[in-house]
Write a structure and sequence with these properties.
8 helices; 0% strand; single chain; mainly alpha
């Protein structure tokens, strides 16, 4: 007796040229992240001593490296739903997705700067703030909102059905924005703990 996977999203076996291109871009971004990290030297806590602009650029590079592979299976399935300009539509979707993750650099930078200032000014208070933050993050991980977002991020087939027949560059950017929003809603709490 065979059982069907429930809630299963697209698989890695479905990788096609557009999704393979995303994986290649992510690999290049990983090399750039390693090169950047080596050039920074020393410890890389908090804002890493970077300005907001530089932090945002490094953050965007890291998100490109880490997050593009996560959407490759979805892109493979998404690009099979239309016959026109798969490359252009993939770029638009990936740009929308990465825009969400890049925008997350702003609160991440603010949180990192705040953490740096608390740690340097009041180390004992920093421990209390960290404990409270862990508690908030832990509670969020158990909420129905997190579960709904996780379901949509893991299996974005609903996006495929809702947006698969659309046209135009902005349409695909919106698909990327929406999918990125669900994925960010799943991961923001864990990323906050890392900061």
């Amino acid at each position: 007796m065979t059982t069907a996977r429930t809630g299963a999203g697209p698989s890695w076996r479905s990788v096609n040229a557009p999704s393979a291109a995303l994986l290649a871009l992510a690999a290049v971004a990983w090399v750039a992240v390693v090169v950047s990290a080596r050039s920074m030297g020393g410890t890389m806590a908090g804002t890493m001593g970077l300005s907001l602009g530089a932090f945002t650029l490094v953050w965007a590079l890291m998100m490109t490296a880490m997050m593009l592979p996560t959407i490759a299976p979805f892109v493979a399935l998404y690009t099979r739903t239309f016959t026109d300009d798969a490359a252009g539509r993939t770029v638009a979707l990936a740009c929308g997705y990465l825009l969400v993750w890049t925008a997350a650099a702003l609160p991440a930078y603010a949180l990192a700067a705040l953490a740096e200032s608390i740690v340097s000014a009041r180390p004992a208070a920093a421990t209390g703030v960290a404990a409270a933050l862990f508690a908030v993050v832990g509670v969020y991980q158990l909420t129905p909102l997190k579960e709904r977002c996780l379901a949509r991020c893991r299996s974005p087939l609903g996006l495929l059905f809702a947006y698969g027949s659309g046209r135009g560059r902005l349409h695909d950017v919106r698909v990327g924005l929406r999918h990125g929003g669900f994925c960010l809603a799943c991961c923001w709490a864990l990323m906050t703990v890392l900061v």
